[in-house]
Records
---
Amino acid sequence: MGFQEILGQEDAVLVLSRSLENDRLAHAYVFSGPEGVGKALTALALAGALLCPMGPTDSESPRRANLGCGVCPTCRRVASRSHPDLIILEVLPDKKEISIDQVRDAQSAVSLCAYEGRKKVLIVNAADRLNASAANAFLKTLEEPPEDTIIVLISSQPHLLLPTIRSRCQEVRFRSLSDEIVARFLVERKGLDRARAAMLASVSAGSLGKALAGEPGEAAARRDSAIDILARVAVEPLEERAALAESLAKGEGEAEALIEWTDLVVRDLLMASAGRADRLVNVDRAEDLGRIAERISTSALLDLAEEIGRARAALRWRGNPRLVLDVFLQSAAAIMAVRTEAARP
């Protein structure tokens, strides 16, 4: 795993590679940005650069020093997260937070001398999920960091980190990936056809991780469900909308999935309303989308997009999925009831 494998994060990679070249790394970093955009991969690439005994072999490379080769046994162990000088702190599979006991184990590990490399690297995945006791204990490590240890905190919600932790780290920001980058990866590396890749890329919100987690068949089913809900939400009885909200809220991630797919469908409806069928992502449902677009005004679609934004924000702030979906579906029903008076002829 090397920096050359990180997609779409040129600014972040440049900051780190220049710091490596000049031997001016900070003792601690916060890699912040959306989920699934390469923060963890970049942290492993940085670890490889610090732990690799080989260094670059390409004399033409602009990064001539302190970069991992990506192919030696050390780099392979870093990529597989099995190197003894790489300590990874993260939420355990059956837990929701990082505990103080885990932090203490990590502190013991970084207090020892490096086994093989020049440095030790401590990576904290989902650092915003350190519980209160763990966060306060971890703060001591940042206040008195071991000289041979580089610390990387990874967070998609850096505002949840203690200000005293965040202030002791250099922040490196990661951005959402373009749909083009995500779709190209899915076509070239995963063998998806272009239509499916474009659909997954559009709903991924710039997250390659989300796109990779979505099975094409499952994605199509969720997309079809979002189209169906929009088509009938205005005429369904209140109790049926409430039952739908309750059903979806029971499945992990289902509420978020509905909101994201509905956002994509609304985007296509706006394209259809503007007569831009050539810009549709869901081209296989163009006829159905056209029928829905004829029944609703552009202003109503924009109102619906605002409701989607509110629902997304509420879920991001860990709002109750059942309540969020209930409010969203009731609002969508009212908006979709705005019919042909202002709709496209």
---
Amino acid sequence: MRVLKVAIIGAGIGREHLAAYRRLPEAFDVALICDLDRARAEEIAGNVPVVTQLGDALASDVDLIDICLPPHLHVATAIAALEAGKHVICEKPLATSLADVDRLEDVSRATGCTVFPVFQYRFGVGVAQVLHLIETGLAGRAFAASVETHWRRDAEYYAPDWRGSWAGEQGGVILGHAIHVHDLVCLLMGPVARVTAMLDTRVNAIETEDCAAITFQMESGALVTSSATLGAADNTSRLRLVFEGFTAESGLAPYAPASAAWTITPRARSAAEIDAALAEVTAPPLGFTGFLAAIASGSGAVTLAEGRASVELVTALYASARAGGAPESLPLPKDHALYGGWRP
């Protein structure tokens, strides 16, 4: 396995990415950290060189640019990296319009470089269990699910001027927070066919939404409800997935719902069948480490197409909410009113 040289762009969430790279020295070598705030970058860098200009990172001999910037900078930075011949890891959201995803796809295709959208919640024992049960045929039909993203975000969180704004963060709880559990629903229950959404700003004095009540109908016919708020007393995420063969329920860990084994309750399948299948599960490393390990191994990495599906879902949710909660069907056509973006 060839060790990939990496430049991390942004030392905020980039701190957590760096920790994950350091757990995989056989696959990755962080060669540069780039941040306009040199002191912030040097705080985490150790012996890794620090630069303050993106151009210096793009001109270096790294193989991979890891984008950990505010959302409004993602697409332009990713395109610049691709055009410089670098593969790209991009924090969520990958983009804030389907038109921009089109641009990323075009440049990725033209350069032969790959884009990996970050969805680290996929990696860990809980999700691995459910995926294995589905793959072995024990799940049967998907019936329904309920998911919750109930987090606490107060004024301190919104101190950076880009947060909570349409210009900077580009969206609220459905874009920056619930996007993770919605990705898990799609991973485990298949594509979304139709959505309805009600969104409101009820918690903080910000531009973007911080509460959401959502329904999905999946292509399989399964029905899903999603409740999201940034006004909870604490931080919890929860998924409860109902299949023909069993019901699977996560714990409440807010930022790593796959970190522990999920509760699997048999229905049409016996406990012995399910226990035997679960005994076969080898869990990937948790979170960012598992996300990076999948890239290194070439198996199970998050794809640009999956990133596109996430952006399309968010687009549909904003469209439904602005139409008073009217149903919105997917996929969205290129002439859709919000194809070029959902900013008001």
---
Amino acid sequence: MIVISVLIVAGLVFYRIHTNKEKEEKQNGPAGPRTAAKVYGKVIQGQPFSDFLSLSGAIEADEQIEIHTEISGIVESINFSEGGRVSQGQVLLRINDAELQAQLAQAQTRNNLAAENERRAKLLLEKEAISQEEYDIASADFRTAQSQIQLIRAQLSKTVVKAPFSGTIGLRNISKGSYVTPTLNIAQLVNTNRLKVSFSIPEKYASKVRVNNQIKFNVQGDSSVYTARIYATEPAVEANTRTLLVKAMTSSPSGRLIPGTFANIVFPLETLDDGLLVPAEALIPVQNGKKLFVMRNGLASEVMVETGARTEADVLITSGIQPGDTVLTSGVMSLRNNVPVQVNLR
């Protein structure tokens, strides 16, 4: 009975194992070598690559001011055309100076009298007819009269407003006969012969900034690419934004660059003779960075990489692969490490 029982149990175990094996074969097919996954790949070779930063900036005039008067008064004449060119020293407007001219005439009369009194006092002093103190008083009156004339002439010079530099003058906010005060903005004067490009660069790249380095930029609505040369930077990084303010100089002979507009700036970092560029779709983001697959001995091999700059289609690999490696570029999300692959090179 014991022998029969053992035989029955052994038969049941064999039957169970055989049944499970048949099920597995039906589900997975007969045992055999794994089928190689068909993927696309690319042999990576070093190639020239220019690294750069894309930044936003603004166009500024080389010189730009608001025109104001130094004194209050009635505008007597306007000597410029809105939107026109003016030269350095050109008279822009005149303020009525009738009152000041009358004060000047009065001061000159007093000065003449004081001069005569000083002359007579000097003669009397030489004859000892008056004291030194009396002569000093006459002399002081004469010098005071002269100072009054200088003060009025200084006020008269302020009735004429001149252009401090050559440039283009904007729209005026006054008319002939207007009463102006020093707080009133008459118009803007802008020197557009030369223009400044102002932008901020992250502190990580601040050491890359060099005076006389050249940058390229464009503006909205204009397909032209312009160049500018860096001429100055702030001496310190801005604490709140952690950026360094940089200014470059350019010119606009055609007049198409307008101060105040935004600029899209390309700031060059470095040029590599043998940069390793891989298609962006080959990279797989992971928790600790990025990885990709390369083919080694017919198998997909997982490699952690470090990346740098990128173009529209490719990414610069700074470490992790070598020239001549075959990087897998399609179907990488479903690949596993050491899976056989059949690669079609692109």
---
Amino acid sequence: MRNLLASCSLLLVACPADEAMTVSSAGSTAEPPSTGTTTGPAPTPSTTDPAEPTTTTGPTSTTGEEGVAGLELMPRLAGLWSGPASMTPLGTFPRMNMDVRAASSQVLFSRADLDANNNLRFAFEVEDHGSGPVLVYRNGGYFLGLLRDSRAVLTEHTASSWRFCSATKGCEYIDAAFSFDGDDHLILDVKVKGVQHVYWDALREETRALPEPFPADTTPLAPDAPFPPMPSLKIDVGWAAPLEEEGGVWAIVTTEPCDLQFTCKHSRSLLGPAAAGSTSASLLLDQIHAGDYKLTVVLDRNGNMAETLFPDAGDGVSAPNQAVTVAPSGETSVKATIVVDL
């Protein structure tokens, strides 16, 4: 269960507040203009790297016979990545999971949630910010119901590292680097205004196939393009005894089996409220990738799991690894029942 909690506080540092655009609530479908993320002590570059990185000046790109610069990053990022996020303004978080997959023929996407009002989103896509097609790293999400959304454009890259800087204020404002040490070790190093913002040292725990070629179309999207439409998963949870006090319900969604020690790597997770006296709750995982999953639900009867980091006496658990298939579009609904009290 420790792995479920890192995304909560990371939402506080998803992007700088004075550049972020906000809307009034997490229920809004508006997608405002954005910017990006960072760099720092990266893994040792591959010996196949060129002596000097390929660079672009400002929000420009390398086009022509070679196409848009840096697109080889997209297939390298596909997968379920998991690892500690350190050097954030709020300290170190032991685990952050991002399941990076194609959300459309042009967009690579991942999302981590705490609850309906707090989440973190990554996206990679080709956009035009005034100087032609360029690879963009999009970072943000909802914090306390307000949308923060940033865009950074690729400024330079080698065979094993890609540097993105703020689309509107340059590298002195947001500077983000994705660096690989082998196929399955990734470091995301972000600085904001020259100050360390996050350092994510992640391993690829599971692979994810992408359509070929990907992206299928490099026609640039608009600089304020919304996220592509994605399906959602509604989880209706029930239990027998009414809660004596307000608690919480955790939904854990994985692609591999999960045991009751929760050592599995979750693709998505979500915390929902459970009112005193209630015997049911509903949770909605929005912007989830379509496909097959395994669902396990925990009823945190005393609402202390955020502190204990694990279910304790009196908490309830559903039958582990309930099979769930999320449809390619629209809302998929499933029911889960708490069957075991600890």
